[in-house]
Amino acid sequence: MSLLELTEHKVTRVRVLVGADADPVRLAGKVPIAKSDCSYYCPDAATAERCIEALRESDERLRSRPEELMLWDWECTYWEAEPDNENGGGTVLLGVAWFDQAFFDDRRDAWFGAMHNRIYQTLGIPLDNITVTHWVALTD
Q1: What is 28-61 written as a DSSP string?
Q2: Angle, to 10 degrees, between the axis of helix 114-123 and the axis of helix 45-63?
Q3: Running DSSP on this structure, what letter comes out for residue 7?
Q4: What's the rounded Cα separation, in Å, for the pair 46 and 44?
Q5: Residue 124: helix, strand or coil by DSSP?
Q6: Partner of 75 for a Cys bridge, out of 21, 29, 55, 67, CB 3.0 to 4.6 A?
Q7: What is the pLDDT of residue 5?
Q8: What is the largest CA-CA distance in the chain?
Q9: What would the pLDDT profile of 106-139 be if each residue is shown by its tens digit?
Q10: Shortest CA distance to 92 belongs to which of 122, 121, 61, 49?
Q11: What is the model's pTM?
Q12: Strand 72-81 vs strand 34-44: parallel, antiparallel, or unpaired?
């Protein structure tokens, strides 16, 4: 596909939730030791809305924790509508910033656990529609 053909199929990414990566006060000088990129394909608008609302509620619970328990944080959440999806589907994208190596090592695959699987079922997002990629910072 040529660059010209790519521009004919534009995808717009819209920030729907602000995370630590766009809020220096929230980040409070912490430096992530790892990052996870997560994507949730939602076949229709109703599924996407449930997903985004669940993330908003999770973020509110996270923000109510004491600072010493903030071993991870959400990064911004984005919505990319699928251009030809008549049902309003698309992909919810978000990042997770990890601030503690031991916590990351222990919890990085939590997205695949029983609790998260129940959440995905409630939202209507099958595991096949979810991808998570972890990135670890190199140390000198």
Answers
A1: TT---SEEEEEEEEEEEHHHHHHHHHHHHHHHHH
A2: 140
A3: H
A4: 6
A5: coil
A6: 21
A7: 55
A8: 50
A9: 988 888 778 888 989 999 999 999 999 999 988 7
A10: 49
A11: 0.86
A12: unpaired
